[in-house]
Write a structure and sequence with these properties.
Length: 492
Amino acid sequence: MRIDPEPRPIGEVTFAPESQKRFASLSLDRNPIHMDAVAARRLVAGHRVVHGIHILIAAIERWQQEDDGRIESVSCIFSSPVAVGDTVVFMQIQGPADEYEIEALVGGVPCARITLATAQRPAPAAPMTDPVKQGPATTQIRLPVTMDLPLDENPEDHVGKQYALEVNDHDLTAEYPNACRHLGARRVAGILALSRFVGMVCPGLHSLFSSLNLDRGTDSELENDLAFTVNAYDPRSRLFDIRYQGGIRGSIRAFLRPSPQEQPSLQEVAAHVRADEFSGTRSLVMGGSRGLGEVTAKILAAGGGDVVITYATGREDAERIRDEINANRSSACELRRIDLAHDSVDILAGDFEVLTAVYFFATPRIYRKKAGTFDPQLFAEFHRMYVEKFYALCAALEDRTGRPVRVFFPSSVFVSERPKGLVEYAMAKAAAEVLIQEINRSFRNVRVLSARLPRLTTDQTATVLKIPKESNVATLLPIVRSMNGTGTEPAA
């Protein structure tokens, strides 16, 4: 057999929203990270994610073989989430011993690596890293064919349990003709069931597919349901080790990803704030429906100030913050919708005349996939938000307010530390710092305060592994006080 180490393109797929819905209906994996755009924006990827198994099946559909050997085993490592709407390019490498590798890339960045073998071989071992949480095997739990909501259980409660999952009997030959030809329709249905188990059962609601190994099993087992055993859970890496058997058999690794980051309640914030220290103020908190904007709005309200918070999407999140504040201080919080990626700051003109301070926490998604050192389009997006839109806001305030107003701009320690992959973000924040110096030099009514904030707890900083972060309230409270003339001005 010819060995060709050079990758060659074998096709590409744009995972449109319609195909996402179709795959969910076939796999019965309706996890919110795949289906709910508003909920997904608060999860680790920051956007709706294509099912990992969908990418795997798409790769098998485009596999090009040089012989008539059938697929005996499959392994796949999912290295980076694919966003709904992304175009995935599949590159194939033919190796020795009847083995083929397919790499899935988005914009040149690898997102999955699939190995297909057409000769039988021993199943690879998948040992877990010690120490692990393990438990005794229990009676097999039969799962319903469809589940409205994914499970959200303590991870240790899954360990040692055995689950039986009925494979969807939908005819997949028209949907995935090549995969069904290579593996058989029943086995393809079993592969889709792997997505359902991870996304709806274990880890369930807060799941992230890491890798899988499978072999085709025996024909005598094809009519069987899939039986899953949760062997172990490692709390350090938040990683599950799961084995399965039936029409296909093998192992799965899946992460328990972080749940949406909860900010402290108004009551918790109030314990650090004097009840009247911000009374008589009216502040606009842009991006106040979650994260640092939410904490800032609660600090101001806890101190007796009135607050207007803006949101781009996720009205329910914004209403939750408003209602929490107004339950303690009647009509102290109002909402405004503005999406700075598309809208003009003039939408907020009606509020400008009565504001004493503005906090600019509006931001695009920070962490992105990219293949090279620098992405001009990504820099342009950050620059537009942090420089162009921020300047437009300051200029509008300067023109329409006849009295002093303070504006806070959150810069970042990443300007000086520059973590790998965030050069565009750091450059845009640095450009904003230069702009702020010019605004403070030339504007009469607008005074901008800025501080390089440390890594804080937000949806955008959530990771599978725990990373130490500073306290949001302890970091932001001195800034809010300085904005209102009751504290030391933060250093830029």
